[in-house]
């Protein structure tokens, strides 16, 4: 019964992680969507004065890569002090929850894990999300009609 409860807890945790990824993806995608819609006229002007769509796609791809790298590094730098603090000073569970943990033979502590594969996998997953979100502006540029883009 305890094993089934642990499995259920793991599955609910994975489901919450999936919802979190979904929210993060649409946050990234919303940013990209606004970037493209605000710059539609700019893209139209660049293409109409002779810039190849292929080069424009490359520029937008490089922008997305740089935004993704800056976001990932910023997230890692912002979270590092928190992770280190709670690694060295874990949350002490008190009261009834602490007593239950001690009854099961565990320490009544909630430490964070040190930087390991889990943290790096999160960065990789977010990088994949940025890559998926970058598909939209590339398709929009490919289908861009200069006259319609110039009209706004």
Overview of this protein structure:
- The protein has seven helices and two strands; from the N terminus they run αααβαβααα.
- It is mostly helical and 152 residues long.
- It has one domain (2-151).
- The chain has a two-stranded antiparallel sheet.
- Helix 1 (2-38) runs parallel beside helix 5 (117-133), helix 3 (53-88) runs antiparallel to helix 5 and helix 3 (53-88) runs antiparallel to helix 6 (135-142).
- The longest helix is centred in the first third of the chain and has 37 residues, at 2-38.
- It starts with a helix and ends with a helix.
- The mean pLDDT is 89.
Name some characteristics of this structure:
mainly alpha, two-stranded antiparallel sheet, 7 helices, 3% strand, 152 residues
Sum this structure up briefly.
The protein is built from 7 helices and 2 strands; from the N terminus they run αααβαβααα. By secondary structure, the protein is mostly helical. It has one domain (2-151).
């Amino acid at each position: 019964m305890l094993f089934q409860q642990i499995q259920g807890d793991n599955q609910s945790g994975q489901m919450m992680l999936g919802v979190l990824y979904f929210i993060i993806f649409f946050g990234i995608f919303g940013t990209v969507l606004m970037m493209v819609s605000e710059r539609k006229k700019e893209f139209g002007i660049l293409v109409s004065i002779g810039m190849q769509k292929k080069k424009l796609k490359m520029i937008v791809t490089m922008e997305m890569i740089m935004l993704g790298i800056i976001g990932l590094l910023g997230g890692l730098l912002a979270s590092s002090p928190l992770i280190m603090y709670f690694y060295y000073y874990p949350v002490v569970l008190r009261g009834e929850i602490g007593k239950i943990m001690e009854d099961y033979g565990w320490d009544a502590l909630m430490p964070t894990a040190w930087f390991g594969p889990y943290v790096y996998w999160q960065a990789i997953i977010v990088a994949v999300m940025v890559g998926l979100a970058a598909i939209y502006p590339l398709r929009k540029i490919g289908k861009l009609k200069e006259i319609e883009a110039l009209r706004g």
